[in-house]
Specification:
There is one protein chain. This protein has 598 residues and is an alpha/beta fold. The chain is 47% helix and 15% strand. It has 19 helices and 18 strands. Strands 5-6-4-1-7-8-9-12-11-10 form a ten-stranded mixed beta sheet, sandwiched between helices. Helix 13 links the parallel strand 14 and strand 15. The longest helix has 42 residues.
Amino acid sequence: MNAQSNLLSLDINVLAVLAVSLLMSVSAVVLAAFLWWRLRSTRTAPVVTNDPPNLDQACKLLYEFEKNGRAADDVLVNWSPETLRQLLASELPDAQVIVVSNREPYIHNLVDGKVKLLVPASGLVSALEPVTRTCSGTWIAYGGGSADRLTVDDNDRIQVPPDRPSYMLRRVWLKDEELQGYYYGFANDGLWPLCHIAFTRPIFRASDFEMYEAVNQKFADIVVEEARNERPIVLVQDYHFALLPRMIRQRLPEATIITFWHIPWPNSEVFSICPWREKILDGLLGSSIIGFHIQFHCNNFTESVDRFLESRIEREDPSITYRGSTTLVHPYPISIEWPPVGFKNQPNASECRRQIFEKYGFDEDTRLCAGVERLDYTKGIVDRFMALDQFFQKNPDWLGRLVFLQIAAPSRGTLAAYQQLHRQCLDYVDDFNRRYGNDRYKPIILLDEYHNQEDICRVYRAADICVVSSLHDGMNLVAKEFVATRDDEQGVLILSTFAGASRELLDALIVNPYDPSAVSDALLRGLSMPAEEQRDRMRRMREVVRSNNVYRWAGSMLLDAARLRKRSEAYEATEPAARAETASNVVPLMGKKKGALR
């Protein structure tokens, strides 16, 4: 009897264990399904309201996004020029917006005795130009065109765009020695390679830094000249002007200075190479707000400040208090105009394909890969050619059927590193085409010349695949431009994991550009991808670019500027005793010796 009882008890225990196991398995399946659904929902773009934007709603939503780590799964405002105008009128009434950059948005050159207008194909220009138009601001930039002096007034100003003037361009004149030391020297022989992991050694010369400092001061003087009051909003652009924010702050202490660093920021160990690291950090911390593309670069900047300057760092609401002033450090992923005005009058994708194929004599069944960038060692141009070499070795049946069209606009040609890269590209392509091509077929077509936006758009729309294989990039707007032009919802984007755009365009084929075998496999996958999958991926990426457009990028920074202004006004309105108590709470910490290495 006891044996039967024990056996029965054992059977019940076994059944209980089986029941629990079954319940756990079902729960795991349900949980896995839920997590998969959540992952898919976060990989797609948020829903965008189609109704006209309400600015109060926009402000509340943006502040809520900030509080929650600047991300949202719910409704986003439909950011547009009108939204930005409403924001300025409501949150920043009567604010003068001044943009400062090295490159100008419109260049006038003398060609055969006639003045010809050139709009540079620049990511910075394509992002900032529509914002400046909307703000009716003033853009201060170096005037390097051969006819630039002929087209300005007595105050070196010109209204632009030429066909529909909406803002003022103030040109700054630089002597050859200034340009050589400030631009080609410290900025592009020093800071550019320092900030990019492309294994090109930065070169630092004291004479270059002295010229860099002098040119930054020249721009600061012109900002003060152009300011109509004591409280302009100054948008300082990029690594050419690391010292400028502090110089402006000394002359216009009430200005709201937003500095956006368009390239990566290195970790503190790499940054320590710079002989003038403290001066660079001090200059940037003259800003009210410092923006980077991604949080990782914000973290690197904060780490550099923590290591080399006496400062107080707040991690939750990221900010740095230094010399009695507080600077916000936030990520603002830059984007492009939506809808892209420069592409609106272009023919459809099939017509663009016909034109490109006719121009270069491609067979009708040819598959086209495209790359579009400046001729720069950070863009991984040779690396993608090496990947194409591996592709043909693995897949010889594609020879004669696949062409890579590479647009590589000349850049910084007086610098030795760029001259070497240009020669390397030419030699590699010549050798490649000899090995894999013939009299009728060239697998790589290298166009080392300038192209206007219309030509580039036709290439985007004609391509089966666009390859963005940057070795290191802040954002890379080529990826977003390619997606924006593909209203046929076809085409495949192969995107480097080291470009900031890979954080947003998750439906691209993300690759490590240093691994030619992986890029080769991505090429094969892209060429084999069904039209339906291309459509699904492209729709999701287009929705991301539409939602996170350049107006949202600018609006986020301007909303933060408005918040800072309101805080400042509230602080000034308090009693002197209360102000003293508040100030005592933001005195920089003095916990370590300035410049000490850990």
